[in-house]
Write a structure and sequence with these properties.
About 25% of the residues lie in helices and about 20% in strands. By secondary structure, the protein is an alpha/beta fold. A six-stranded antiparallel beta sheet has the order 6-15-16-17-14-20, covered by helices on one side. Helix 3 runs parallel beside helix 7 (about 240-250), helix 3 runs parallel beside helix 11 (about 550-565) and helix 5 crosses helix 11 (about 550-565). The relative contact order is 0.17.
Length: about 575
């Protein structure tokens, strides 16, 4: 039975003022978050920073600003508080991301409690997770870095950004749990006989150069930490910036509201930014259905952290645009990876001598990089002896019962090893072709449809014809690699994901030193808006083939440090 929406009686609650529902106490929401009036109308100083969006990058940015400065920070998110960490760090409570749909089929209500489709377009999408933490509660965790020649392309737009990435990748790799204290890709989470045998066999194939277009293999760069980082500390588990944001909000709550330096306000949908004189002057929002307006001093930094599509829409709706639409840069250069999936089965004997692998075979993972003259790709490889043909089944699981673990491992005795190859191939952007154009990918404002607040929705056009030959070469390389591991391997299934189902949209507010050829500067500030910044994947000039989260976190750190360093 669905419970009715609770109606605020506006009567004071007993201390502590935690809302009681029919089934629970809203302790997490109340102890972490504040109402609009609590945050804005407490008599305190104006906010130094307002972050719009509490997802992966907004949450990390807020935490970094809080811990590395004395700035006063307000975080606004359109959704409610859901959970405080990645869902895979919790028991199976039935929350998961929905499948992708055609935006025209948007039901107009949330799917799986928090997922909405704010934009329209001609590709399938999963949409946005409207909740504090956003997609950082759901994401996959793979975090490879851009390669040296990828960064050389960034160099052409801004040498300082490229160098910052080189200098700071390791810091964020340690932050999310990839690197150990010695600076190596940690293997505490992925280890054991199957991993050792599979990695050795793949390394041998790479060294022999028997599979065209395969360049290297690496330990899996997963944002998961299994072992304690230091004595007496718990490991990080699977990374989500929501955990950092909650910790920072609770620490900030030790001060009175008047003096408090960090507020998180959920259910605060920012409708548009008011801009005048080359700066943001106000934020028009709706808090739980009530219109709100926050005046923004010129000294306040306003940061968009809504994800590529919605940050671009907010910029197009709110900021001055070129009087000649053919010269407008915002919305160009959209890049979306092509992602393929191949499930295969090989024999244990193909990668190890008889008896070398234990009967109970645990999961393994590694990363394989490849390239052609058309660009780069990588293969996220996972393996197990799972008889249900799901190599990922135990890879990202928290199982708190030793009897259940023993029962699951007892299933891992099949003579067949299941391999899951998730291939991700490079997408090429276009910064010079005006939008709209059917021959390039772009984001602009829909001339036909507005949202519930009367604001035009974003329109997303994904054109991948030029990226498909590389993706096809990636598929061929993956199949040849499988056969190199076991000539008698069985290819069970193959499929290509819908273009918008990857969460990998990037590039439409790209960084650069020249305001004529880029939208934001080397610190993520819009060239033409003095106090507006961005901290998400839309900042990427190019994207390579790698999952964008790690690079996005490094850039978020750069933007945060630039804001701290302002006079």
């Amino acid at each position: 039975m669905t419970l009715n929406r609770l109606v605020d009686s506006f009567q004071p609650l007993a201390i502590p003022d935690v809302q009681r529902t029919t089934l629970s106490l809203d302790i997490l929401g109340r102890y972490v978050c504040n109402t609009w009036d609590e945050a804005v109308n407490n008599g305190g100083a104006p906010f130094d920073v307002v972050i719009i969006g509490a997802g992966m990058f907004g949450g990390y940015c807020a935490d970094h600003l809080f811990r590395r400065s004395r700035l006063r920070v307000l975080v606004l998110d359109a959704g409610p508080f859901l959970v405080s960490t990645h869902l895979q760090n919790l028991p199976d409570i039935g929350l998961f991301a929905p499948g992708s749909i055609d935006p025209a089929s948007d039901p107009g209500t949330t799917r799986n409690l928090v997922w909405g489709m704010p934009w329209r377009g001609d590709s399938q999408f999963v949409g946005q997770a409207y909740c504090v933490g956003g997609k950082s509660l759901f994401w996959g965790g793979w975090c490879p870095t851009l390669l040296a020649d990828d960064l050389q392309k960034w160099q052409t737009f801004s040498p300082s950004v490229a160098q910052y990435l080189r200098d700071n990748y390791a810091t964020l790799q340690r932050q999310v749990g990839i690197l150990d204290s010695q600076g190596n890709i940690a293997t505490d989470y992925i280890q054991g006989p199957l991993f050792n045998a599979l990695k050795a066999k793949v390394d041998a194939v790479v060294a022999a150069q028997t599979v065209p277009n395969i360049d290297a293999s690496e330990n899996a760069p997963l944002a998961v930490q299994g072992a304690p980082p230091a004595s007496g500390l718990f490991p990080f588990d699977k990374y989500s910036s929501a955990f950092l944001l909650v910790e920072a909000a609770r620490e900030a709550a030790g001060a009175s509201d008047h003096d408090r330096r960090l507020f998180v306000v959920p259910n605060a949908h920012v409708i548009r930014l008011q801009a005048s004189g080359g700066a943001v002057t106000g934020i028009q929002a709706s808090f739980n259905g009530t219109p709100k307006l926050l005046t923004i001093p010129a000294t306040t930094a306003v940061i968009l952290a809504l994800g590529t599509i919605e940050s671009t829409r907010m910029a197009l709706v709110s900021f001055p645009t070129n009087s000649d639409p053919s010269k407008e840069l915002m919305g160009r250069n959209l890049m979306v990876h092509v992602r393929d999936n191949i499930l295969a089965r090989i024999k244990r004997s193909a990668i190890a001598a008889p008896g070398a692998l234990p009967a109970k075979l645990q999961a393994a993972a590694l990363l394989v990089r490849g390239s052609t003259a058309q660009g780069k790709f990588h293969l996220q490889v996972t393996a197990s002896a799972d008889i249900g043909s799901d190599p990922d089944r135990l890879l990202f699981s928290m199982i708190p019962d030793i009897d259940q673990i023993d029962d699951l491992l007892a299933m891992e005795t099949s003579d067949t090893i299941s391999l899951w190859f998730r291939g991700v191939s490079e997408a090429k952007g276009n910064t010079t072709t005006p939008t709209p154009s059917q021959n390039v990918s772009f984001i602009n404002l829909s001339p036909f449809e507005s949202d519930e607040f009367g604001v035009p929705r974003a329109w997303v056009h994904i054109h991948q014809d030029g990226d498909i030959p590389l993706a096809n070469a990636m598929d061929t390389a993956a199949r040849q690699l499988i056969l190199a591991l076991d000539p008698s391997a069985e290819i069970v299934s193959t499929n290509r994901d819908p273009a918008g189902s990857t969460y990998h949209e990037a590039g439409t507010l790209w960084m650069g030193d020249d305001p004529v050829t880029s939208v934001t500067d080397a610190n993520g500030r819009f060239h033409h808006v003095a106090n507006a910044y961005c901290v998400d994947q839309s900042l990427f000039p190019t994207v390579g083939s790698v999952n964008p989260t790690l690079t996005g976190l490094v850039l978020t750190r750069k933007v945060a440090e630039a804001i701290i360093a302002r006079p």
